[in-house]
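## Example record

The block below lists the input lines for one assembly entry, exactly as stored, with component labels intact.
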Amino acid sequence: MSASTNYKELSIGELNRNKILNAAEKEFALHGFKGARVQAIADRAQLPKTNVLYYFKSKESLYLALLEDILRLWNSRFDEATVGDDPAEVLAHYIADKMEISRCRPYASKMFALEIINGAPNLNEFFKDQHASWMAGRVDVIKQWIDQGKLAATDPHYLLFNIWATSQHYADFSVQINELRGKPMTQSDFAEATNNLIKLILTGCGLTVPSKFE
Amino acid sequence: MSASTNYKELSIGELNRNKILNAAEKEFALHGFKGARVQAIADRAQLPKTNVLYYFKSKESLYLALLEDILRLWNSRFDEATVGDDPAEVLAHYIADKMEISRCRPYASKMFALEIINGAPNLNEFFKDQHASWMAGRVDVIKQWIDQGKLAATDPHYLLFNIWATSQHYADFSVQINELRGKPMTQSDFAEATNNLIKLILTGCGLTVPSKFE
DNA sequence: TAAAAACTAGACTATTTGGTCAAGTTTTTT
DNA sequence: AAAAAACTTGACCAAATAGTCTAGTTTTTA
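Predicted C-alpha cells for the full assembly:
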C-alpha cells in the first residue's frame, strides 16, 4: 500500500488490489467511512467501480482490510522493551518511529484518526483487548523504570498519550501545519521536528537526549 | 450550543436553532460533513427534518454556521499577550484553556479535527488569513521572549503545534483514551492531566511551573 | 491447446439522500 | 381582533449510492 510499492512481479490481481487499497486509503482519510464513495475510490484507482467490488466484496470489507493493514503499522521496537533497556534510547526511537509514520503514511494516520474520532465503530474487541494488554505491558515497564530511578515520576498513560498526540499531529493536521508554516514540511523539517519533540518529551521525563537525536 | 445553554428566556426559534446546532455538532463529529445525515440531526434534535431545513437552508449552511461558532472558541487570553508578560503564566493558562475546551466541548473539537483532517475544504481564505496572522503575532512574541532569555531557544511553531496536539488529543481521541485507561476521564483526571501537560511543556521550554498548576 | 480460473465492465436496481412544496397552526405585532 | 410573521409537517421528487447481474475477455493451469 505504501507509495513505494513495487508493482513489478505482481499478478494483475495483486496489482489491482494495491491500487484499490491506495486509492481507498486516501478517500477514507478525506471523507470518512460513510462519506467515502466507492465510485470515487474506483476513479482514483483508475478502474471501473465494478472491479473494486470484485476484489473487495463491499465497501465495508475494503475498509476493514485497510484498517487491518494500518494497525500493523503500529508495531515498533518499543513493544519488546524491558526494564533492562535504556529508557532514553527506547523512547527516542519510539518517537522517531512515530514521526516517520506521520511523514511516510499520512493517509493511514488520518484514516486511523477518523476511525477513533468517530467512536471506533470498526475496531473489534479482539483488537481492543490486544491494544489494552499492550498498553498494560508498556505502562508496567515505564513504572519499573521510574522505580529504578531511571525516569522522573510521571503518569505512564499521559506520557504515551502525549507521544501519540504530538507525533500523529504532523500527519493528521498537516493541512493546518502547512498553512501556518507557509510551506510544506520537507524531510529535513521532519528530522528537525523529530529532534525537537524528542528533546521536549525526554527532558520532561528527566532524561538526557541520545546524541543521535541532537 | 454548549451543553449548559439556558433554554429559558429564548424564543421558539432560538431554542430550536440551539437544539439543532447541538445535534448537528454531534452528528458531524461522528460522521464528518459528507457522512452526516440531515435526518439523523433532526432525530437527535427531536424535530422533523423539514424543520432543520427551515432554520438552516441546507446541510452545508448548518455546517458552516456551526464551524463559525466553533472557531470563536479558539479565542483566548494568549491572543493579547505581549513581550512584557510572563511566558510561564501565559503558556500555562493557554494550555489550561485548551484542556478546558477538550473537557467541555469534545464534539466541537472533534468536528474541527475532522474539518482539518479532511483538508479544511470549508475554511475560507478570510479565516485562513486571520489564523495565519494570529500565528505570526504569537510566533513573534515567543521569539522576543527567547531573545530576552525568558524562554529556552525553541521553534515557536513546533511549540504551539505541540500544545494543540496534546490538549486536543484528550477530546479527539477520548474513545481510545477511555478504552486504554479502563475508565472515563473525570474532571479531576482532567485537572491532573492539565498539570502534567503544563509541566511537560514548560519544563521543555526551561520555564518554572506557576504554583497554581503544581 | 483446451479447460478453468481470474478478471473486466456496461446495464440495471432498490434504497437512501438532500431538498422542495403546499397547506396548515401558532405566535407576535399593530 | 385582525393581519402579518414565524413556525410546523406530511407528501413528494430528482439525484446519488452501494451493490447485483450477466456476458463477455484475458490469463493461468494442466
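Residues 11-13, 16, 47-51, 54-55 of chain B lie near DNA strand D (CB under 10 Å from a C1'). Chain B is about 70% helix and 0% strand.
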